[in-house]
Amino acid sequence: MNTDIAPHVLVSFSSPPGGCVPPFRVLVVCTGNVYRSPLAECLLRHQLLEYRQMIHLSSAGTRAVAGMPMAAVVASFLLGRGVQPSGMGSCRLTKEMVEDADLVLGAATEHREAAVRLSPVRALSRAFTFREFARLVRSEDAAGVVDPAARFVTLVQGAAARRGAVSTRMGDVDVNDPLGVPPSQVHECLVQIEEIVERIAAAMRTS
User: Fold this and answer.
1) For 153-186, what is each residue's pLDDT tens digit?
2) Which of 54, 112, 174, 202 could crosslink 106 through cysteines, CB 3.0-4.6 Å?
């Protein structure tokens, strides 16, 4: 039973000077909002720190119990990477969160599907699993786009357009719930998420 209960981590930044393009909003989703989604959210924020004024990051869980703290092993992992854990406790995924997001990253297919069920029109072309988006996003899709927020939007559009052509060859796109597995497997899961985030961040950075 998936009860991946992780802390909600919300990072909100002011709009970029000039305000011509709204900040880009990323929502990361798992089951409990204690392991997978807060880790990915914190790592992505760290990797994209240079864009802190142009991007809003948050996380939630499809079955989260409100206010649960980030799993200690996740906080320790982040500290070991020089990333400061932060958050206000776990929170449950809502329709409003999905509709506010420009990109929804789910730990597994069930989380992507949960977002689409909550807001089909908004999420259908904006919701991916971590691994799916890492495989589909291409930096060249946004070649020549200078504004970071506009660049991120273009990258999501490119990934969505590519999905139909390659999805049948993608294989497994889930990051499994680490709750209750041996410590070595938990660590493997955290490292897997770290590697996925690095690929996504590399594509999102301006060349």
Assistant:
1) 999 999 999 987 765 455 689 999 999 999 999 9
2) 112
DSSP-assigned letter for residue 6: -
Q: What is the DSSP string of 89-104?
A: ---B--HHHHHH-SEE
Instruction: DSSP letter for 30, please.
Output: E
Between CA 162 and CA 185 the distance in angstroms is 32
DSSP annotation of 11: B
What would the pLDDT profile of 22-50 be if each residue is shown by its tens digit?
Answer: 899 999 999 999 999 999 999 999 999 99
- The predicted model scores a pTM of 0.87
Helix residue ranges per DSSP H, 5-144: 36-47, 72-80, 95-100, 109-118, 120-123, 130-136
What DSSP state is assigned to residue 48?
Answer: T
How far is the C-alpha of 116 from the C-alpha of 130, rounded, in Å? 15
